[in-house]
Write a structure and sequence with these properties.
α2 (about 35-45) crosses α3 and α5 (about 105-115) packs across α6. It is built from six helices and no strands. It has helices at about 10-30, 35-45, 50-70, 85-100, 105-115, 120-140. By secondary structure, the chain is mostly helical.
Length: about 140
Amino acid sequence: MRIDWISFTPGPALAGGLLIGVAAALFVLFNGRIAGISGILGGLLRLTKGDIAWRVAFLVGLAVAPLIYSLAAPLPDIRIDASPITLVAAGLLVGIGTRYGSGCTSGHGVCGLSRRSPRSLVATASFMLAGFVTVFLIRHVVG
């Protein structure tokens, strides 16, 4: 994937970040739960009565939001410079890391850091460092 830095617009980026923060705060305020996607999705694998509807609604909202946005503005072009095998391997590694780290970037990076969780600070620093190292190795050592 390539980022078009020339077309980078800090205003919409800031607005998007604010929306994510407000949504996470409202979610914890009204539901008493962390808006961690892996936990929300994982909860559907352990069906609990009365716990399914909000999880499905949350995930449907994630899928429908870009479609609604596309009514107001064009969606950006997406270009992925990786093979399907690489994407599957990356997805599996992220899934394994999410399981070992007891959460994902949204749970730890957005919600955990805002709650000043030491565990989330370590988790976020770990996956950011792993991402930096991976990009460096792929771009400068392997590629």
